[in-house]
Specification:
Elements: H1 3-19, E1 31-39, H2 48-61, E2 66-69, E3 84-91, H3 93-107, E4 128-132, E5 152-158, H4 163-172
Antiparallel strand pairs: 1-3, 1-5, 2-3, 4-5
Helix pairs in contact: 1-4
Length: 182
Amino acid sequence: MSQLRQRYLDEVVPQMMEDFSLTNVMEAPRILKVVVNVGIGEALDNSKAVDATVNDLRIITGQQPVVTIAKKSIANFRLREGRAIGAKVTLRGDKMWEFLNRLINLALPRVRDFRGLPPTGFDGRGNFTLGLTDQLVFPEIDFDKIDKLRGMEISVVTTAPNDEQGFQLLKSLGMPFKDKVN
């Protein structure tokens, strides 16, 4: 069992139950899944971009990514229906906990001029999304083997009913936020 998951069970759940006056352990917010998404704008011109992105995501998450395709054509973006436009991975269970542990303890501290995550990334339902400008913050990625820097979006989906509980859950797990949500 992951250290982060053990910490969630031993420390975070009892603290959340006390802070929010919850009567049942199952009421305590938990993390359902983590979705890592990369948009590949240059895939229209460069067919190898999809393969490189899929490979990077596989190395980072330890799971095979799904290539996302365009649902409809948009002439202004030179986009045709059915073309590959991104890649995503949905992590659950042990892989999710390991990824979150590496994100919090290894990747985020490696971001240049990092002063904490803005707590504005919550969606109103306790889910949090953050964006990274490049994949090099993950130590698994070798700088010499990448073809281009690509940003990614990481969404943490929780069972929290509101942003306050979602914030408290992620903050208790060690997510480095700047300051508290209003």
